[in-house]
Amino acid sequence: MFIGLDLGTSGVRAVLLRDDGSVRDSAEAATPVAHPHPGWSEQDPADWIAATRAALGELGARQSLAGVRGIGLSGQMHGATLLDESGAVLRPCLLWNDTRSHAQAARLDADPDFRRISGNIVFPGFTAPKVLWVAEHEPEAFARTARVLLPKDYLSFWLTGRAASDMSDSAGTAWMDVGRRAWSDVLLAKSGMRRDQMPELLEGTGIVGPLRPEVARDLGLPEGALVIAGGGDNAASACGVGALAEGDGFVSLGTSGVLLAARDGFAPAPESAVHTFCHAIPDTWYQMGVILAATDSLNWLARVTGTRPADLTQALGPLRAPGRLRFLPYLSGERTPHNDSAIRGALLNLDIASEQADLTRAVIEGVSFALKDSLIALQSTGARLDRLLAIGGGTRSRYWVELLATVLNLPIDLPQSGEFGAALGAARLALCGVTGAAPSEVMTKPPVAETLLPRPDLTAACEAAHAAFAAAYPALRALP
Asked: Can you cite a GO biological process for this protein (predicted)?
């Protein structure tokens, strides 16, 4: 058997995979997030270990783990976990959605070498500007920093004692030559870092090492079980849904929104604000547009109205053309296509007659239009998407998925119920890493329960509404 561990922002999910690739069981445990100041988002790595113990403990209480041969890892990207010479954590991890380093990111991005070598804009959420912020604001912690690890790689370090990372996760640091799949000494030096402070780079199927004996005993796992490098959360999700080759892609309606396209080659276009990263499988890349508040936008509306998100969407009835009420979902800033950490959301055209259902429609329309912006940006790089698989909590709303299919003008497949996310992808990477099986044979697409097609009677109205949405951003940006 094989285990996939996915370290998300809200918790750890563990999936137990049989050697035939079928899922036997799963478990999860929550992790807290701290926001000590506006724009700050931090976690204590000790909570990741506690959640891993809890999830594996729940799994082990129901299933024998004696036959586990490998553990693959997936996790939230871009976090900065600083360790001293002894491997002790120096400060809480700065997470992907921490935007305090916007000034440092702008300075690094102004150096043309960063876009040229990394193939990406230096976003405030990336790792390099966060560590530069620590250097400038917490110099004592920076001076003691012997190594910087991404969140899932800290778990790998705890499990094995070896500091290693995979290509897909490391591509989001702004320290990597993404085309060459190697650390860039030029980019490291320009942000005040050294190669010896970086983990060893492996492909996602690479073996980090066996479990430390004391950790294996603690977790109830075999001492010979191997830890596999794994992948960043979106690359691992792509492995979970079989998005491996040109033309494959998915849309994720999670806390953030992601539109991902697998690529057979390296084709960066940083000016589009599209991310171009290494895939978790060898000699493959992927590109994605990212919006920072997808279901987070609906959760915000649910919070201020005192209504559950599911109840908000269930009250909408059949799909309708977009209304005049317009929502710009920039509650935490935005990545694709604007690269604007300062922008904030807006509701336009509010009317005395506006009701809760109108607000709900406006929110999910705004998120869908923002994902249309990402599709346009992806298409500008040459990425080809003929259809999409929809994953994430937002896909429980049929209204939302049908709207998204119409806005994007692409068929959207809804998978049958089951496991197909990042934890499954991590377990599949473990299976391939331990057994040598080909990813194309293991990382198959899930069975499709239903395909929602664009509504031809509404596509023109959606195109017009998206044009109005796109025109609102510069006007909002110009406000004091």
From this structure: D-xylose metabolic process
Beta partners for 251? Answer: 259, 390
Q: Where are the domains of the chain?
A: 2-241
Q: What percent of the chain has pLDDT over 90?
A: 92
CB 5 within 8 A of CB 71: yes
CATH fold, domain 2-241, is Nucleotidyltransferase; domain 5 (3.30.420)
Question: Would strands 226-232 and 275-278 be described as parallel, antiparallel, or unpaired?
Answer: unpaired
Q: What distances in angstroms separate CA 337 from CA 123, 295, 377, 378, 479, one per listed residue?
A: 12, 19, 7, 10, 19
Band of pLDDT at residue 342, cut at 50, 70 and 90: confident
Are 407 and 451 within 8 A, CB to CB?
A: no
Is 279 labelled as part of a ligand binding site?
Answer: no
Token pair in block for residue 455? 């509504």
Active site annotation includes 233 = yes
pLDDT band at 480 (very low <50, low <70, confident <90, very high): confident
One-character DSSP codes across 36-66:
-STT--EE-HHHHHHHHHHHHHHHHHHS--T
Q: Of 406, 428, 312, which Cα lies nearest the Cα of 360?
A: 312
